[in-house]
Amino acid sequence: MAVYTDITEDDLKRFLTEYDAGELTSYKGIAEGVENSNFLLHTTKNPLILTLYEKRVEKSDLPFFLGLMQHLAGNGLSCPLPLPRRDGALLGELSGRPAALISFLEGMWLRKPEAKHCREVGKALAQMHVAGEGFSIKRPNALSLHGWQALWEKSEARADEVEPGLQDEIRGELDVLASNWPKGLPTGVIHADLFPDNVFFLGDELSGLIDFYFACNDMLVYDVSICLNAWCFEKDGAYNITKGTALLEGYRSVRPLSDDEIAALPILSRGSALRFFLTRLYDWLTTPVGAMVTKKDPLEYLRKLRFHRQVASSAEYGLAL
Fold it and tell me: What's domain 9-103's superfamily in CATH?
């Protein structure tokens, strides 16, 4: 979440007349994240999240995102729901941007998750994969192999400004992943961005998943690799095998992993680390000065990528074979 496009109180009040949402009492921007402009609204009815979809989000993808939240909630997953307008549409327009009102999910994200929380995240991810079955709209993963190459080309010329030698290292990494990327593994709807700030807890109980704006169709176990990267490394860059074991056990308690999926985890974890390195690198180099957004350090994911290069088998992630 972030704020790129500002809104006026008068415009927002007019926008709210298109919904049965009550009258506006207050609103504020949400600075975390890098993709859309988000605001927390308080009304005379219920708190809501207002999302303005920025230029990096294709308007044609919005029916997938909004419809997916409805589908997942209808299949028992705790996640926000888009609020329909009075005319039944889920999408409006505000400040020249497509905009939606989303229900507010109670809870907070954890700054210091423990192994017990990782176990619950693993369960919730598997529950999402199961709940996503039967969703009829498809969306390819634009941030997989071909997308990485295109994104790298936008940053390559300046990469060595971030760390000397990056140009050669990342070119080589892209070649290795292109030659070894798995095929034929089970696919479905994945979250593709299930970081701690997209998982809410009430105490130690997971209350729901949010922010489905990278969701797409891809290998289910690729989503697991994203979570290993997002949840199981410590601030000093060390991989925490206790957290990894808990996350993987939690996932497998809901949806078993095949032998082929298990074998693919090291290369997929390497790929998902590269994916977040590349998007962070691009944002680091191109985010406008003054944007109300928190830039994230790309080198964090470069260090994770280098860790995964040394992994010989999935047992090193804490996966009992």
Answer: Phosphorylase Kinase; domain 1 (3.30.200.20)
